[in-house]
Amino acid sequence: MNIKHTLFATVLALGAMLGGAAVKAETLRVGMECTYAPFNFRNEAGELVGYDVDVAKGVAGIIKADLEYVCQKWDGMIPALLANKFDLVIASMSITEKRLEKMDFSSPYRFSIGRLVGRKGLDVELFDSAGNPNAENFKGLKVGLERASTYASWFEAKLPGADVILYDTNEALYLDLQNGRTDLIMTNPMKAYLRFLSKEDGAGFKLVGPEIDEEKYFGVGVGVGLRKGNEELRDRISAALKQLINDGSLEQYARKYFPFKLHKEEWGQ
Amino acid sequence: MSFDVALIVDSIPKMLMGLGLTLQLLILSAVLGLLLATVLLLMRISGKWYLDLPAQAYIYVFRGTPILVQIFIVYYGFPQLGFIRDSFLWPILREPFGCAVVALSLNTGAYVSEILRGGVLGVDRGLHEAGSALGLSAHQRFIYITTPLAVRLAIPAYSNDVVSLMKSTALASTITLLDMMGIARTIVAETYAPYEIFISLAVIYLIMTWFIQKAFGVFERFMSRHERQ
Question: What is the pTM of this model?
Fold first, then answer.
């Protein structure tokens, strides 16, 4: 068995060397935390899996590159990229103005949005057909939010009269929603699903209303990060991401972990 | 580091919007706590073990655990029990304000009952004996001799407890109440300027402490008016 494997590997290696002379195989080193479930983490078998990992593999398949993963702690992610420890950041990194000063991003592959969560059977038209909140129907409803979060700024701007209660942690939001001290909470739907809705405690609750994604409050989304000056590679990655959106792969990656997709269809254009 | 004076000028009025809530918490908890303390005191000095022991246990538990833990148990713990959510208590415990008042009153009641007991025990035995020699009943002695003297003896320690209760009201901000502390924490989370905001807040609390001390000073002088020349 071992001998067979070794032989096989040798043949492969020889083939690769011979082939390498003809087609230059590109190896891209990808930085990620490797501990951020369900986006990039090791499963029980020790393999790197997750939404980010699937995106990396999908992109690599299209642009015909080999991948090498580099596990890097979050606070050192951008310095390590700039120090050429790896070529790409595919680690759920949001595209922000501040980061764009130092690095470049592909087009987005995952959104940053907010969703309301409320009790099943809460039957109020909170939003009109255009997706704008209907202030009248928020009256009498208590809304739990995290202190000084993007969700709180959105509420302050859009629904200044709403009865808002501020919490210090995400867990406290779910507890008080369950206890009936609030009628609604607004948070990141992925977090809400993983920590609450998919658990027994969250059984009586559901996502309410549309995806709230105004760029002014929530940013553009998550993209593949790379060093500046790699425009050609960046454009190839963006094109590959669009292909993954349009052929449905991206939605398939998301549905491994969530009952909803994590991107906007218009990113495919 | 720079000290942003404009930010302080801007945020003090915002924090003062929470003053009303802070005062409500303080006054309501102080009054309810004092009532509770009186009941506990009577149980403690009743001389009957079946009243004394429960009071002792209560005082031990509430003085022996952090007030923050008590607030969290009332706020997050009680609603987990179905029968509390179905009971008449739920309208009170549903509201964070009710939870804060309940927790603060239960806590301060335990401390104040011990302060009052100290006052009662400090009343000279000789006065009791003189009272009975004059034909006063036990009840009369308690009302006309013990109570006024015990109150006077307890004032300094009690004023301390009221100040400490006032500071404890800041913990209500941990259960979503926007008292002065809650507003300050929100401003800090938005401006990342803890230094300016919390120092201004500390000054506001110091001013409140000064008023409380002054008020009790006046009360103490009134209760000791016979000692003046």
Answer: 0.78
